[in-house]
Automatic annotation (TrEMBL):
<dbReference type="InterPro" id="IPR044068">
    <property type="entry name" value="CB"/>
</dbReference>
<keyword id="KW-0233">DNA recombination</keyword>
<dbReference type="GO" id="GO:0006310">
    <property type="term" value="P:DNA recombination"/>
</dbReference>
<dbReference type="Pfam" id="PF00589">
    <property type="entry name" value="Phage_integrase"/>
</dbReference>
<dbReference type="InterPro" id="IPR002104">
    <property type="entry name" value="Integrase_catalytic"/>
</dbReference>
<dbReference type="GO" id="GO:0015074">
    <property type="term" value="P:DNA integration"/>
</dbReference>
<dbReference type="GO" id="GO:0003677">
    <property type="term" value="F:DNA binding"/>
</dbReference>
<dbReference type="InterPro" id="IPR004107">
    <property type="entry name" value="Integrase_SAM-like_N"/>
</dbReference>
<feature type="domain" description="Core-binding (CB)">
    <location>
        <begin position="8"/>
        <end position="89"/>
    </location>
</feature>
<dbReference type="InterPro" id="IPR010998">
    <property type="entry name" value="Integrase_recombinase_N"/>
</dbReference>
<keyword id="KW-0229">DNA integration</keyword>
<dbReference type="Pfam" id="PF13495">
    <property type="entry name" value="Phage_int_SAM_4"/>
</dbReference>
<dbReference type="InterPro" id="IPR011010">
    <property type="entry name" value="DNA_brk_join_enz"/>
</dbReference>
<protein>
    <submittedName>
        <fullName>Integrase</fullName>
    </submittedName>
</protein>
<keyword id="KW-0238">DNA-binding</keyword>
<comment type="similarity">
    <text>Belongs to the 'phage' integrase family.</text>
</comment>
<feature type="domain" description="Tyr recombinase">
    <location>
        <begin position="106"/>
        <end position="285"/>
    </location>
</feature>
């Protein structure tokens, strides 16, 4: 599978893989990622990937680890190569040798309610305040925020329509009255600037024909965190984590949070129980019961005074 340029045609092998992905409903983003990963393997191999052996695949995975590739990169490559060899080439024997690596389990960074307020207040301009407000107020992923359109805001039903989210799934996210008001302020300002149009992007990029980029949102969070005096390393995704954690601390049912976040499995949502300080504080330590028993015995043994 060779890298193509506008002056070269797509190889039959790459075209076959693209057709296989399209027929199975993989999202355009996943398709691009799979193609890039197979191209990287072909570049390492120095020849077409359909000529690879099981030893070639093993050596490539060892090469990734030796080069310090993180777990996300390695597992993304494994998924792409598994698809390529299992589906496109029908070489399940080669795919069996691919090994995904375990991600390190780290506690997710979460802002306090006060920190979230300071961050939004410090956002560089009303557009970014509204965009980060959606990330925190509705729990959207950065890519979902970036690709919202004006028509996705349903003020009648107080919902935000998220189309083609992770896994290609559509869902409804919550739209609170304060968030709606913030979006209306941005709408009026965007109209004044001449960048907001009916059926257009809710958060246009440098050109109104393109959506804001994830990189721009990341940069806005970094700037706001610095102004707000938040020293920890955070990203737009931190706002999504904070949304879920704060809902959990308000005793919102975890199954409701699962739907709002668009998680396919409850296990994914359950990670937020690990970072909810209220959940931790609500647990009674077994030591408390022992001390209570000891104190009860001491009171019973002491003479009445």
């Amino acid at each position: 599978m060779t890298t193509t340029t506008p002056s070269t045609s797509v190889s039959p092998l790459r075209q076959r893989m693209q057709h296989d992905m399209m027929m199975r409903g993989l999202s355009p983003r996943t398709q691009r990622q799979y193609v890039r990963n197979v191209q990287r393997f072909a570049a390492y191999l120095g020849r077409p990937p359909d000529t690879a052996t099981s030893e070639d695949l093993r050596n490539f995975q060892i090469h990734q680890h030796e080069c310090g590739a993180n777990a996300g990169t390695i597992n993304s490559t494994v998924s792409a190569l598994r698809f390529f060899y299992t589906v496109t080439l029908r070489r399940r024997d080669l795919a069996r040798g691919l090994v995904a690596t375990r991600r390190p389990h780290t506690v997710r960074e979460v802002l306090s309610v006060e920190e979230a307020a300071r961050l939004l207040e410090a956002a560089p301009g009303i557009k970014y305040k509204a965009a980060l407000g959606v990330a925190y107020g509705a729990g959207l992923r950065v890519s979902e925020v970036a690709h919202l359109k004006v028509d996705d805001i349903d003020s009648q039903r107080m919902l935000i329509r998220v189309e083609n989210g992770k896994g290609g799934r559509d869902r409804n996210a919550m739209l609170s009255p304060p968030l709606l008001e913030l979006l209306r302020i941005w709408w009026r300002e965007g109209k004044r600037r001449g960048v907001m149009f009916p059926h257009g992007w809710l958060f246009p990029g440098r050109s109104y024909t393109d959506p804001i980029s994830a990189r721009q949102l990341h940069r806005a969070v970094q700037e706001a965190a610095e102004v707000a005096g938040i020293k920890r390393r955070i990203s737009p995704h931190t706002l999504r984590h904070s949304f879920a954690t704060h809902l959990l601390e308000q005793d919102v049912d975890i199954r409701v949070i699962q739907v709002l976040l668009g998680h396919a499995k409850i296990d994914t949502t359950a990670i937020y129980t690990k970072v909810s300080t209220k959940t931790i504080q609500a647990v009674t330590s077994p030591l408390d019961r022992i001390i209570a028993l000891m104190e009860g015995k001491e009171r019973a043994a002491s003479p009445p005074g």
